[in-house]
Amino acid sequence: MSRTITVVTPENIQVTYRVAGIASRFMATLVDIFIQILMILLVLMVVRITAGVGSFGGFSASSIVSGVGIVLITFVIPLVYSIVFEMLWAGRTPGKRLFGLRVVREGGYPINLLSSIIRNILRLIDFGILPLATPLVLFGLPGLVCIFFSPAYKRIGDYAAGTLVIVEAGVTPFSERRGADVVSASVRALMPAVRNLDRLTAEEYRIIRRFTARRAELEVVVQAAIGERIAGPLLQKLEIDVPIHYQVQYADMLEAIERRYAEDRGVL
Q: What does the domain layout of the chain look like in residue ranges?
């Protein structure tokens, strides 16, 4: 089964993503569960410390804290944890960030609040937690089976929310850096100046991508000449105002644009 999927982004650019498989998603989930367990233990510790504390308006402090603790343990931490992080970190929880994964909507759109809520509420079904008279727990079997048979490695929550879990381009603590992924200091210095990427047309992006892919095969003089010819009009179009001190920096600028686009969208 292919681990890549090609979509058209909101900017009408065709890009390829590598979807996350069972192993990486399972490990990311374990990390997130571990963090949630630590948070639950912290809540339990606070509840225990407040036991026996005085009362407020007829209610004991310990009963109030215990009630809040029960809500946190049973609802807020398991559900809101993932939603909050996916909103703050553009589709990444701590576990996903550690393993270089990101949740996006189909079509390359960033995840939004509604899709995050849907996929995380349905996580209960993916985990196989069925609220019967005697609660039944299937230890994630429904989600694993769904991912295994899905062409895009989706769990039930992903189908309902219209989301994908992709592998981000770049390096994670558990992957090796490929030579082609090494970013030079000059390119890295130019990347913060890149802006207005939504103005790129599909053809312009393909030209930039083709140039950066073959750049290492070209002589420096050729890189500089071609880079200036391509980058000149684009710098004006994207309103990128950056000083170019020597000609080969145009080639660096094109690579900065391409890499910045890839980083922002997790494009391969």
A: 4-167, 183-265
Q: How far apart are CA 245 and CA 207, in angstroms?
A: 24
pTM: 0.61
pLDDT tens digits along 35-54: 988 988 887 787 777 665 55
In tens, the pLDDT along 182-232 reads 778 888 888 889 988 888 887 788 888 888 887 877 777 788 888 889 999
Of 197, 200, 207, nearest to 251 by C-alpha is 207
